[in-house]
Amino acid sequence: MRAYDIILKKRNGHGLTRKDINYLIDGFVKGNIPDYQMAAWSMAVYFQGLSEEETKYLTESMINSGDTINLSSIPGCKVDKHSTGGVADTTTLILVPLVAAAGVPVVKMSGRGLGHTGGTIDKLEAIPGFNVELDIDTILKLAMKSGAVIAGQTGNLVPADKKLYSLRDVTATVDIISLIASSVMSKKIAAGADKILLDVKTGKGAFMKTKEQALELARTMVKIGVGMKRETVALITNMDQPLGRALGNALEVKEAILTLRGDLKGDLYDLSIELASEMLLMAKTVRDKIEARTLLKDLIEKGRAVDKFAEIIENQGGNPGVVEDLSLLPHAPTTTPVLASMDGYIWELDAEKLGRAAMVLGAGREYKEQKILLEVGVTLNKRIGDAVTIGECIANIHSMNFHNLDAALGLITEAVRIETEKPKEYPLVFGRIAD
Question: Where are the domains of the chain?
Fold first, then answer.
């Protein structure tokens, strides 16, 4: 068997066997198959696609390329959640303590941000002392102790995905439904959860720009999960405007804490309650959505959710005092207001452009090794549909100095559209996919 023959087979539109895919992935991880051949195969897949069966084989092969985590020693049903990436999406920092406070253990393996979407691990590092680099034994120990842990992906968990994603990122082969689905599901299944909830974003700030694309991705991932004996549910959610009001690592941590304390309501709060309700239903700890929502809101109002977050922070070496004193988080020295250019209503807050504005300030990465600035970002004072008057502050830019301020201001100006008529309202959740 040769990599050349497998590439040719896929280029010509033929199906690949489990043996073909195992040979390709195993050889690539071991260094026997070079990057240029895997790049050629990825481009062949881009044009020819993978069948449902091939996608399952690829997912299995990537899982088997490295370590897997066995969570069976942790009592209860373990439910994991994954978001396909969005702007001002801090739901993980809210969901993990909230669901754990409800008695459902959550072991969350998260990643860093790249481009205009933020990474959970970067956000957590804005908390003084917080340690995201945990080995598997420590992860299991903390999960047993508190029912919740958030860590970076361990070194040898699905190494095939790490290598393949890095290659796809520089060869214009990222946006392939089957490869995205295999990438996500291989990591989720290897991480050991009993059940998986997927938050599939669609809109201007998402990788899936249309509802049709998001539905296809959701269905593909659900089929993989169910085919590998993991109950999997997907919600299709709106990412035309940023989910929260804060863009930037420390700013988003602050917003998550305010939400957990019950001091802040809005789309971020609403979607967190919706996702957490699904997780409780999947774990069978509640009878229905009404019971789930009532329980979760009560946990926030009584302070048990934010207390659990403080416990997670302390367990992982951070300063739990941040949940009471937000000034302990890094903050930028310069704040610049962005003013409304006319009277009217906010019609558009382009999530991708706003995410790029935060990125050029230093909150995100243009390349994998780039160091980020935890303090910087953008905060929004308005949402789509809100009334504004000329000269009113609609956003604030938080920067270290005036470097790239003009570029960020230009992107924000492009992202915001004001009209004289109030716009139509769109739902936060477009649909639910399950087997």
Answer: 3-49, 79-325, 330-419
The secondary structure of residue 149, as a DSSP letter, is E
Strands 79-83 and 377-380: unpaired
Whether the CB-CB separation of 334 and 400 falls below 8 Å is answered with yes
Distance of alpha carbon 252 from alpha carbon 120, whole angstroms: 10
| Domains 3-49 and 79-325 belong to one CATH topology | no
Give the angle 312-74-98 at the CA atoms, nearest 5°. Answer: 40
Dist. CA 286–CA 425, nearest whole Å: 31
Stretch 157-162: mean pLDDT: 90
CATH code of the domain made up of 330-419: 3.90.1170.30
Could you report the per-residue pLDDT of 323-333, keeping only the tens digit for each?
999 999 999 99
Mapped onto helix, strand or coil, the DSSP state of residue 142 is: helix
- H/E element, 197: strand 195-202
How far, in Å, are 2, 126, 155, 161 from residue 109 at the CA level?
35, 17, 12, 14
Q: How many CB atoms are closer than 10 A to CB 237?
A: 27
pLDDT digits (tens, 9 = 90+) for 393-402: 999 999 998 7
Of 229, 218, 153, 151, nearest in space to 180 by CA: 218
CATH topology of domain 79-325: Pyrimidine Nucleoside Phosphorylase; Chain A, domain 2 (3.40.1030)
CATH 3.10.100.10, domain 3-49, yes or no:
no
Report the predicted TM-score, pTM, of the whole model to 2 decimal places: 0.93
Residue 206: band (very low, low, confident or very high) from pLDDT cuts 50, 70, 90? confident
Q: In 3D, which of 214, 235, 244, 309 has the Cα closest to residue 278?
A: 235
Reported for 34-38, long-range contacts at CB under 8 A and 24+ positions apart, including other chains, are: 35/167, 37/3, 37/4, 37/7, 38/163, 38/164, 38/167
pLDDT at residue 368 in the model: 61
Give the DSSP letter string of 300-314. Answer: HHTTHHHHHHHHHHH
Catalytic residues: 82, 161, 168, 183, 187
Separation in Å, CA 307 to CA 45, 74, 295: 47, 21, 16
Q: Give the Cα-Cα-Cα angle 304, 276, 140 (nearest 5 degrees).
A: 75
